[in-house]
Give the backbone structure.
Amino acid sequence: MAVDPVHNVSVDEKKWSKQIEDLSAIFKNYPTLQKSKVSFIARTVNRWFVNSEGTKVRDSHNQYSVRIWATAQAADGMPIEDCEMVANPDESKLPDFAQLRQITEALAQRMTELRLAPKGEDYCGPVVFEDQAAAELLDR
């Protein structure tokens, strides 16, 4: 039997509310973006494994994440969206506000430029997905 104690989530709600509000306000400087959302999630994840032979395992850990998301529309009408997410089981290891601001600005700028990009060429052939692209393909 391996039963971890249940973790408790504890966050400075005032701090995170202010930071998320300030990050969200960045999108006001990018009027061509249609929608945007910034969220902070703090949760405890408890996983149990129990079998008929008497084995009991509980894994408990906290998860903290900040998700930054935006949508736009290209000149040809195609909807586009992108997001950035940072997560860590230790809240103190999340990026500080200055880093989160840079991530948010980069996403807003990237989406603004992407909506003006020329239409891609038609392509029929093999595609290799690596790194983050592979994870996003399998997430769909």
User: Anything to note?
Assistant: The chain has a mean pLDDT of 91. Residues 75 and 118 are 9 Å apart (CA to CA). The longest strand covers residues 56-73. Residues 2-139 form a domain with the PmbA/TldD fold fold (CATH 3.30.2290.10).
